[in-house]
Structures are given as C-alpha cells and as structure tokens.
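Human: I hope this is not a bother. Would you mind checking the protein record under this note? Thank you for your patience.
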Amino acid sequence: MRVHHFWMLFWHWHWQNLAKKDGKRGLNGRAWLHLYWGDPDLRGQGCKLTCLGIQWVLLRKQHSVGVSLDVGGGDGDRDVVFSLRIPYFGVYLSAKDVWPRRWEFYNPGQKYPSSRELSVTWHNQALWIALWRDPDEGYGRGGPSFWKDARSGQRHIVIHPLDILLGRTRCETERLDAQSAEVELPEGRYPVQVVIERRTWTRPRWPWSRKVRISADVRSDQGLPIPGKGESSWDIGDDAYFSIGTPAASVAEAVRYAAEKVRERRERYASADWVPAGK
C-alpha cells in the first residue's frame, strides 16, 4: 500500500472489481480513498479524517430506480451515503465519520443516536418516499405525528398506482388435496403430510387480471434432518426441515422435490454421505 501526501494531508486508496466475483455481465466495482492529517505510519502523528467510498453498477439492471440520502448511520453514527439509480446505471457515494456530533439525531425516549433517510425510489411496482425518517425503526400506521418523531408512519409514504387504478390484489386459497406420504432419505423413510393448494390473485376493477398458482407444502412433525451451517456458535449442531414449500402439483412430485432439497443441503454444508447422529 503506497501512501501519498501533500504537506500534512496524507492519503491512500484501493479498489475492488466485483464483476469478476459475482460473474454477472456489466461493470460492478468499488473504491475507497482514506484521508489522514499527518503521517498514518507514525504512531501518534496521523489523524484519520475520513474514508470516501464509491461503488458503480453499470450496464445491468438495478434493484430500484431513484435517489437516496442517508445521514447519521455507520458504526460511528456519523456516515453520509448518497445513491442514484436509473436503469442500467447506479452509483453509490459515501463519507465515513463526517457528520458533526452536535448534529446527531435522537428519537424521543432513546439514549443512542439514529440515522435519517431522505429518498424517492421506485421498486416492486410502487413509489416509496422517505421524508427524513428513521430507516431502522417505524410505527407503521398510527403512532406519533410527522413533526414529533422520525419513526412516524407519516414520514414513510408508499403509493401503489395499480392498486389505485385497478384495486388491491385479492388472493383466494383453495385446498386441493392433503395426503400422508413418506420422504425417502439414505438413512430411512420419514412420514410427512403433503398439502396441495391453489392460489388465485385477482383485482376488483380489472376482471381480466387473473393469476393462478398451484403449490404443495411438505410438512414433517419429527423433521427432516439436515446439518447445521456451522457459521456461528448457535448453528453448529444438527438441524431439520419441518416444512418445505414446493412448486409441485402432485404428491409424488412434492415428495421428490423435498428429498432433493434435503440432499442438496446435506451436500452443501457437510457431505453427500451425511446422516444424522444415531442413524
């Protein structure tokens, strides 16, 4: 890492190409510029000013379209983050620990500071507007008024144009079948209950809009054994699936889907030969 300087201002930078990591098309990368007042290599001499970051996502679909400003987040509750997303272009800018302490935000009755969000975005067929709200907490409907608390539901507005024009989507669920079956795994057979349902979505002011989906839920009272992920202290031991949702339309297809999912989980986090203890 090479450190540059001009008088007492020192800096170094590095970047990462994320396009190679995720294997998707387009350009995706990020870079950081670390700024110091004084030489950071001399103990007690260098004072870190901030870290400026940028991430670019080009020539690929964005998760949303809009513009956002977040203030007061991060580990030190002093970061500022700005983002702009349009189709096939997204840029994210950040500055770490730059928001003054005297301007920190506090919600009523809370001891520690919180952040604020100002944004207008479009995703999931809806317009989402945040008016200087707390992005981490909220009252939903009701709660305090707009001016009294940043967690007020009045600061978070969601507009669904299709719901306004055609009416809210209604979903009707019909049970088609429910049968007992068995899921066959290397160590033996496990009794399960397979429930097949049909869901139909319609809109009251658009009778031609009709979406139908059939799915099956494989339920096990004793559980279908799987290994823990082993990523944390609480998931080292054995685990189990007690319900597996499937896109199947028949009992036989649902049972095969559930068995395959269990085998994939075992192979991913243990081995293809893994079986629960005592089997």
In short: Residues 118 and 256 are 48 Å apart (CA to CA). The mean pLDDT is 92.
